[in-house]
Amino acid sequence: MPRIFVYIVHKAGVADDSAAEMIAAARKIDVGQAPVAVAAGWGADFDAVCESLRGSFAEVWKIGNEALGYPNAELVRPALVKVLPAGSILLMPHSHFGTDLAPGLSIKMNAAYAPDVMDIEVLDKTTLKLVRQEFGGQVSAHVRCDISTGAVLTIRPGAFKPVESAPANGTVIDQSAQVGVLTARRRYIETIAAETGDVDITKFPVLVSIGRGIEEQDNVSIAEDLADALGGAVSCSRPVVDAHWMEKSRQVGSSGKTVKPKVYMACGISGSFQHLAGIKGSPFIVAINKNPKAPIFRVADVGITADILEFLPELTAKIRESAKGRVSRAAIQARTSADESDAGRPVLRELVKR
Amino acid sequence: MEILVCVRRVPDTSENEIELNGSGDIERDDLVYSVNEPDNYAVEEALRIVEKSGGTVTVVTVGGDDDEEVLRREMAMGAKNGALLSDDAFNGSDGRGIAEILAGFVKKGHYELILTGVQADDGAAQVGGMLAALLDYPFASLVNSIEVEHGKLKIGREIEGGNKEMNEIDLPCVLSIQTGINEPRYVGMRGIRQVASLPVPTFGAPDLGVDGRAGSAGAKVRRMDYFTPPEGKGAEMLEGSTDDIVGRLIELLRAKGGVN
User: Which chain A residues are within 8 Å of B232, Cβ to Cβ?
Assistant: First the structure.
């Protein structure tokens, strides 16, 4: 097998967790080989990253260059082309940086490119059989990949179970001298932080999250009614923001907010991996979708095949009805308790809040 | 500015459920095809740039006769020219092969800006970056804003958490356009009829000088089959009358703290 490299994404002096997943993917290609970490950057933070990588990699190839202080793919790419031996395999996460760097890198390395890889099997010395998804995760595909001149693979985040490798006490090998002067025709200026918006969806225990299935802006109120009844907020997936039906600050996903509710109601959301990446803390996921094959049903706890435009109003009405029943029962109880003692006061206050 | 937008015709997943047939392929007979949705954002962005600072928009696709319809759709949006890159020799091309074919076409013109949609139905998001590398142009992916400056562009890229990475990029360049950058204009049947008789030239392998660099022979990456994704943990599906389902769901939500 050719030599396997893992590209290390890092920020503020800390290597991304994805490194352990890349090691797992590397083992699927060659279990007997210790993959090499390759990292690019500049400054004390970067030095700390390389030091920390010694804990999990036997070899850490360090590319230090003043121009690499910010990870600009247009600069990292030529640096990697100079440093990586011909015929190597490079693994990196399928992220915004991966899609920026990797396709062009494969061309410059004259290597095969396979994006968003979810599983790997070795067919023979020069051929991998990979698993990918197409059509937003509705179907999977086996892909044959000829690695005889090397390969660049971007790895689906979360697809490989991280390998907690034994302490490696590895060596840092400084490859910086090979790189020379880097000049890019694309220059990083600044990062503009996401707008906060009117509602902070990360603060709600219940999210009614809507996707393309909401069909038009006027229907958003259907979800708002349900969220009101549940004491939650409305969040959404990307197509709803693209259509300008909700603010970007309501979007859940890798390019939106990361949320940790107790209950996540995915309504008319197909469940792309970018969307699921924004749901953390194992909430109870309810999926409601017209398409019984929607990928969201594979990760949900409870699924309902239904048109959300019909189902959500029914659900809202029933919840309101049952809440009324409970309130009146509670009210009777409260009155009774209040007659007897002060113990009923908190219940009354609860009722007033309602 | 002369702008080229690379588009693709794909099964419309908002209209279809993708079904597998017995032989490891998707059932294509009843599929409704349309232009890859992200490509509409790329065409719209190109049109807006041209409306502001002059120039023309050309749309191009690699495919067969059926694919001409998506070129006409984008021409109805306002693209002035369309070009179909078609040759039996292109069959079986991988991402690099498609990029080689497009690069051959780019070299025949004088495009300062080349746009693609962020990704197509295969979710690969690869052709734009490969095309830039083949042409030795700078590249940026996931672009969600463009301002034209003298000889260069100021662009925003969508990065994690909804943050935006601002860059300056020299022309000529290749950008992959993220959805949501604009609101693509509506195209009616009337608009499509108006462009129905405009010529759409076809270019083959010899015209583009890509003999041997596209098609199955040169493809390092090839799909073997499609299969149904593993179930995962799989949801408990609630079935029965709407009343039953709603009742059961409320019980579950109450148990999980979703209903007071």
Answer: 298-299
Superfamily of the domain at A201-314? TPP-binding domain (3.40.50.1220)
Instruction: Look at chain A and count its residues.
Output: 354
Helix or strand or coil: residue A281? coil
Å from B197 to nearest chain A CA? Answer: 32
Of the candidates A212, A304, A194, A319, the one whose C-alpha atom is nearest the C-alpha of residue A257 is A194
The answer on pLDDT for A27 being more than 90 is yes
Task: Please give the domain boundaries of chain B with CATH numbers for all domains.
Answer: 2-208 (3.40.50.620), 236-260 (no CATH)
The interface residues of chain B toward chain A in range 90-119, judged by CB-CB distance below 8 A, are 95-96, 99
Q: Is A346 helix (H, G, I), strand (E, B) or coil?
A: helix
Q: Which two tokens mark B84?
A: 């179909």
Tell me if A300 and B238 make a contact (CB, 8 A cut-off): no
CB A139 within 8 A of CB B226: yes
The side-by-side arrangement of strands in the sheet containing B221-227 is A119-124, A127-134, A139-146, B221-227
Q: What is the pTM of this model?
A: 0.91
Which residues are CB-contacts of A349 (< 8 A; sequence separation ≥ 6)? none
* Three-state DSSP state, A166: coil
Q: Specify the CATH class of A4-178 in words.
A: alpha beta
Answer whether B42 touches A (CB < 8 Å).
no
**CB-hemisphere CA count at 13 Å for A181?**
1
Region(s) of chain A under CATH 3.40.50.620 = 4-178
pLDDT exceeds cutoff 70 at A268: yes
Q: Which of B227, B29, B39, B225 is nearest to A137 (CA)?
A: B227
Tens of pLDDT, residue by residue over A94-150, are: 999 999 999 999 999 999 999 999 999 999 999 999 999 999 898 999 999 999 999
**Chain A to chain B Cβ contacts (< 8 Å):** 270
Residue ranges of chain B whose pLDDT lies below 50? none
Tokens 């990797």 correspond to what residue? A102
* pLDDT at A332 > cutoff 80: no
Name the nearest CA neighbour of A38 among A87, A88, A2: A88
